[in-house]
Write a structure and sequence with these properties.
Elements lengths: L15 E2 L5 E2 L2 E8 L9 E7 L8 E5 L8 E10 L2 E8 L10 E8 L1
Antiparallel strand pairs: 1-2, 3-8, 4-7, 5-8, 6-7
């Protein structure tokens, strides 16, 4: 199969069909300030983050800032309601971590 190259934005009213037949109809990348609560040792914390454009059923990719404290790990993210993402973060250390607010990047795919 030959490659097709584009020099500008690609606009499609019908979405992007994948090789397996699936169709992507929406992709959004958003930088959002997230202020995680203090997370106790060994605990998974769930935070609510407003991400405009999020809709139930969207796939979510949550990218933390590069300087996220050692011992914190993203264990999941999902859309719980319109414009609302639930972010689950694990503190795998033996002490509480109170991370400062920072910009995270969220990618939504529908």
């Amino acid at each position: 199969m030959s490659a097709t190259h584009f020099s500008g934005p690609v606009v499609s009213s019908a979405g992007l069909q994948l090789g397996d037949g699936g169709v992507i109809i929406y992709i959004k990348k958003a930088a959002v300030s997230v202020d995680l609560p203090s997370i106790s040792a060994g605990v998974v914390s769930e935070s609510t983050v407003t991400v405009s454009g999020a809709a139930a059923g969207d796939a979510v990719i949550a990218n933390p800032p590069a300087n996220l404290a050692a011992g914190l790990a993203v264990v999941g993210a999902y859309v719980s309601a319109a414009d609302t993402v639930k972010l689950r973060v694990l503190n795998s250390t033996g002490a509480p971590i109170n991370e400062a607010a920072a910009n995270w990047v969220f990618v939504l795919v529908r």
